[in-house]
Write a structure and sequence with these properties.
Receptor-associated Protein
């Protein structure tokens, strides 16, 4: 009993420390972390010079555990790409620490249940399944957020491409047109274009920044549009090409919408079929059972 209480106290201390350290109100960021968003290097290549050996050990543990569990769950896309895609304020390190804190809290609940005299089966289920369930729930939330962001970009892209073609035909350069859409828009695509503009301000060319966006968002229509925009130095009528690409993106969106409508229409018939088959099967079973009893007594 005493050992369980000590272990529960240690886990409570570790989980509380991780949660408090991840709070922006209680943990003041260092100068390196505050300047990190303006650094041209990718977030995965940045580091904090103020990290202590204990914090470095905790970070490495969180990353190793998170990567192993992600590979075990079948997640192949890097966590950093998904966080950057949804413009999360958390980096890979803080996200993994957040997962580790919730896993520690789930383990603490299992130890408390064991200390309270819970059955062995329930205690084992809490200790084994609680941390895994906490990890999978957080991973699933991020995966769903990433999918929703991709869907929003795909829905908004035809309109954004048409606006971009209008600006290019009006005499705007590619960088000025992208900056205009980023400052006047309010959707997911405008947020991504604001990040593209920030990369251009860091010294990256417009085409390179747009290619980075296409690789990050991983949407086919965005990839096709960026390929067309990369011809800005070769095509004198870039606005017309972007207009054609906007129409293609709109047709692709219409086909995908029709497929979703047809799929949902087919799913509607599943409960209707079950509701019709179950009473019918019961009605057919009654005379069959009566006939079997008649033949059995004959």
């Amino acid at each position: 009993m005493t050992r369980l209480l000590v272990a529960a106290g240690l886990l409570l201390w570790v989980g509380s420390s991780l949660l408090i350290s991840g709070s922006s109100r209680l943990a003041r960021l260092s100068l390196t972390d505050r300047l990190a968003p303006f650094h041209p290097s990718p977030p995965s290549q940045r580091f904090s010079a103020s990290a202590t050996p204990i914090s470095q050990l905790t970070v490495e543990l969180a990353r190793v555990v998170g990567d192993r569990l992600s590979a075990w769950a079948g997640v192949t896309e890097p966590i950093g790409r998904r966080l950057r895609r949804v413009h999360s304020p958390l980096d890979v390190t803080r996200f993994r620490l957040h997962e580790l804190a919730w896993m520690a809290a789930a383990t603490l609940c299992g130890l408390l249940a064991a200390g309270a005299g819970a059955p062995v089966a329930a205690t084992g289920l809490l200790l084994a399944g609680g941390p895994t369930l906490a990890f999978l729930v957080i991973e699933q939330r991020l995966a769903k957020a990433s999918e929703r962001w991709q869907e929003r970009v795909a829905r908004e892209l035809p309109v954004v491409a048409e606006q971009l073609a209008t600006l290019l035909n009006a005499g705007f350069s590619l960088g000025a047109a992208v900056n205009r859409l980023a400052t006047t828009g309010t959707g997911a695509t405008a947020t991504d274009l604001a990040a593209v503009t920030a990369r251009v301000h860091q010294g990256v060319s417009e085409v390179t920044a747009l290619e980075e966006w296409a690789e990050l968002v991983a949407v086919d229509s965005v990839t096709h549009l960026v390929r067309v925009l990369s011809l800005q130095t070769e095509a004198p009528d870039l606005g017309r090409l972007v207009s054609v690409e906007a129409r293609q993106a709109r047709r692709a969106l219409q086909r995908r919408t029709l497929e979703q409508i047809e799929r949902r229409g087919e799913q509607v018939w599943i409960p209707v079929s079950v509701a019709a088959l179950v009473p019918g099967a019961i009605l057919l079973a009654i005379p069959v059972l009566a006939a079997l009893r008649l033949f059995a007594t004959a």
